[in-house]
């Protein structure tokens, strides 16, 4: 017996529940993807001729398309399941003469951090052995000072640290401020794998963050590192108060260097009370993810390193970053002066999501593989249509 009111025509109760009326064509999808992104997804080798306008096109692509393209490119140039585990040790804390607005180690800021002398070589090598035992394959060391001028004894000790870590079969990176040609050569001879010297942000925004070291001085140090045959590690810090155009400018600068950096760290500002930026909020996740994806696309063969601020991300957000092209993390007890995700925590996350630690020097071995061995082009203009079939 029908319970419907007689006044309600039965025809209006009929509904069509079809979910897909028609599939978009590859051509219609391609028309919505910027030309710069289409060209990037078809490339088989990195290029250093990016214009700022092209980087902007890619950065401003809708986030779902941007991360899809980044994932496709990531799989062409890297093992998408391999994550490099790095441990960073502060071998000389505080007392730095620089005025970096974000840094707790500047002597110009009242953060309560006590300056220390350089750590003994044996203590550093002990920490490296612990890191290796916990799965880290890259050991990084940072010292809080402006440059290496007049630091002959310190350089001697650092070289002993570098040699000792290399003897363990680990990659080794240092960040020691500005260095000259001769210092770079000495570090290379000691076995240094990589040198970190971040550009931090765009050239235009940089003077509002740091006044004691120029942008060109930073670029000069990168040139000395590259000329010495050492891998370059150079990235930025997000959340300094910069605009999208500054994140675009940073990526454009590193992408137009004579050679792309081997490593591009993406740091999210951790506001530290007592610094000029101590009251800032962490950058929104969508901006962080957009920057990682753009860096992966523009710097396809580079390791994109999820660095400071990762501890504030949920596990799911971290995995989104990995899927968008990040393939390295800092893990262990500390960053420089801020907290860090622990080894056990990272191992458990890797196991849950199917990731595993990258071997030492794995990317160096990959670089010797010819481009003919790369997977077929994963052009994103056609891939969505194929995926819907």
Automatic annotation (TrEMBL):
> Mind listing the GO biological process terms from this record?
biotin biosynthetic process
Q: Where are the stretches annotated Disordered?
A: 366-389
Q: Which organism is it from?
A: Aspergillus caelatus
Q: What is this protein called?
A: biotin synthase
The entry sums up its family as follows: Belongs to the radical SAM superfamily. Biotin synthase family.
Q: Which InterPro entries match?
A: Aldolase_TIM (IPR013785), BATS_dom (IPR010722), Biotin_synth/BioAB (IPR002684), Biotin_synthase (IPR024177), Elp3/MiaA/NifB-like_rSAM (IPR006638), rSAM (IPR007197), rSAM_sf (IPR058240)
Signal peptide (UniProt feature, chain positions): none
An example Gene Ontology CC term for this record: mitochondrion
**Which residues of this UniProt protein bind [4Fe-4S] cluster?**
96, 100, 103
């Amino acid at each position: 017996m029908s319970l419907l009111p007689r006044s309600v025509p039965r025809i209006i109760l009929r509904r069509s529940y079809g979910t897909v009326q028609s599939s978009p064509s590859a051509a219609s999808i391609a028309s919505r993807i910027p030309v710069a992104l289409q060209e990037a997804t078809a490339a088989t080798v990195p290029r250093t001729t990016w214009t700022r306008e092209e980087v902007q096109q890619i950065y401003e692509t809708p986030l779902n398309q941007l991360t899809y393209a980044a994932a496709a490119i990531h799989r062409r140039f890297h093992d998408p399941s391999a994550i490099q585990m790095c441990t960073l040790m502060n071998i000389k804390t505080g007392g730095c003469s620089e005025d970096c607005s974000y840094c707790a180690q500047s002597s110009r800021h009242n953060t309560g951090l006590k300056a220390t002398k350089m750590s003994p070589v044996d203590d550093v090598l002990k920490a490296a052995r612990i890191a290796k035992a916990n799965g880290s394959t890259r050991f990084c060391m940072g010292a809080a000072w402006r440059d290496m001028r007049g630091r002959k004894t310190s350089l001697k000790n650092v070289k002993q640290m570098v040699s000792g870590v290399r003897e363990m079969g680990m990659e080794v990176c240092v960040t020691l401020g500005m260095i000259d040609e001769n210092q770079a050569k000495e570090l290379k001879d000691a076995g240094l794998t990589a040198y970190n010297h971040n550009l931090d942000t765009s050239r235009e925004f940089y003077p509002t963050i740091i006044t004691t070291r120029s942008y060109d001085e930073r670029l000069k140090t990168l040139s000395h590192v590259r000329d010495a045959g050492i891998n370059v590690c150079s990235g930025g810090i997000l959340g300094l108060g910069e605009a999208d155009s500054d994140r675009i400018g940073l990526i454009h600068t590193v992408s137009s260097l004579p050679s792309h950096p081997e490593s591009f760290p993406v740091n999210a500002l951790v506001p530290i009370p007592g610094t000029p930026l101590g009251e800032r909020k962490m950058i929104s996740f969508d901006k962080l993810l957009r920057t990682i994806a753009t860096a992966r696309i523009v710097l396809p063969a580079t390791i994109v390193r999820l660095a400071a601020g990762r501890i504030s991300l949920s596990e799911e957000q971290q995995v989104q970053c990995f899927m968008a092209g990040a393939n390295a993390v800092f893990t262990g007890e500390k960053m420089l002066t801020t907290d860090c995700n622990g080894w056990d925590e990272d191992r458990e996350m890797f196991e849950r999501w199917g990731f595993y630690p990258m071997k030492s020097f794995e990317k160096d071995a990959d670089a010797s593989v010819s481009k003919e061995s790369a997977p077929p082009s994963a052009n994103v203009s056609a891939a969505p249509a194929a995926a819907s079939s």
